[in-house]
Amino acid sequence: MPASPHSDPSFSPPPTAAAPPSNLPPGEYAALIGLDWGDEKHALALCVRGSNRVETLLLADTPEALHGYFEQLAERFQGQPVAVAVEASKGAIVAALREYPWIVIYPVHPATSRRMSQAFRPSGAADDTPDAQILLMLLRSHRAQLRAAVPEDDATRRVGLLVGLRRKLVDQRTLLGNQLTSTLKQYFPQALDLVGSHVYAPLALALIQRWPELRRLQQARPQSVRRFYHQHQVRRPELIEARLAQIAAARALTSDRVLCEVLAGHALALVAQLRSVNAQIEKAEAAVADAFVAHPDAAHFKNLPGAGPAMAPRLCVLFGADRERWVSAAEMQMYYGIAPVIEKSGRQRWVHWRWNAPKFARQTLVEWAGLTVRFCDWAKAYYAYYSERQKSRQAILRSLAFKWLRVLWRCWRDRKPYDDQLYLQQLKLHAPPYLAHLPKGSNSEQEK
């Protein structure tokens, strides 16, 4: 599918006109639509208010066909509200539907529609038009259990798109780095010991670019290698001499010249790609920083313990600027998959991880919880207390993220920055057992 301008984080859409006034009762719609978005065709099932008749239609996968259809609906229903159920909360289809202020989008989790479909088609047969009818049925019969999508403010959306772009670039760098590591292991494994921990770092890329084979590296003068390391901020004489000794004593993994030449060419191609991705990551990080500074709630997140230039914008996106978006901390804990799921049947009780949740958002919360252990005394005490009780690291961090999310929600809701000392004072009123593990000599410990 061709890229849409709405997928570009730097694109700012023009303001859309407000939806015309409607004579319908609040919460009612002139029509309900189930939309099954496909790669080649889009299936729609429509039911007009006051009728049980279902209209079905297949649209070609072109912007012209999609916009032409919804422009016809605008004339047909005179701009009155229309609800559309779709298996997406973002992406191209949602961006297209946002063009029409009279459309209210109801995102449906794919697992929900799939299980509903299986309930009526146990054979597992799948078809686009019946899938659209399933979405329509959910909208008609279970709308009270669905939640209409509320558009994010432009500032939050910009930060979120840029953060997502950076994550995709980092994932791409990881993939290319793994490919380069695998290639080097086949003919020049010593390079991995000579470049440090990250094969995508500038030092590693420069060394492989200059000496893509062990044979060529061993032909270089020792002084040239020393100068190379100095130019790349490696100044410890003992480390440089150890690497020179390693180079001199190294033996080629294989003497097959054909194989070495081909693999060296592949390594150089991967180096060129990694250099390009590194440059794009730097640009994305600069764009994230600029967008985050302009966000109205940046002050609430930039000074959180352990929240640096990468993590603070990610946390900001989870909350947004609309204070009506999250009515409780529990709602956020469940939506982002931090709250565990409890299942009961008879005398059995099963607590497990929430499977269907935004993975990047949950990863953000758990990663940040781990960072706070280094920078926040009570978080460090919390971690130490449960480590003594043989809890796994991931279990502790998930529990800590659950606790942090409740704290942040209150600060965000009240528009007050997080105050570590104030929170510690509140903790002491309840005297949780982990406070006994506060680090010795900390300000928190001295106040006790």
Q: Can you give a write-up of this model?
A:
This protein is α/β, with parallel strands linked by helices and 448 residues long. It has three domains: 5-150, Nucleotidyltransferase, domain 5 (2-Layer Sandwich); 158-291, Helix Hairpins; 301-447, no CATH class. It contains 19 helices and seven strands. The strands form two sheets. A five-stranded mixed sheet has the order 3-2-1-4-5. Strands 6-7 form a two-stranded antiparallel sheet. Strand 2 (41-48) and strand 3 form a beta hairpin. Helix 7 (202-210) runs antiparallel to helix 11 and helix 15 crosses helix 17 (393-414). It starts with 30 loop residues before the first strand and ends with a helix.
How far the N terminus sits from the C terminus, by CA atoms, comes to: 61 Å
Beta-strand percentage range? 5-15%
Could you say which structural class the secondary elements and strand pairing correspond to?
Answer: alpha/beta
Low-confidence stretches: 1-19
Summed up, the helix count is 19
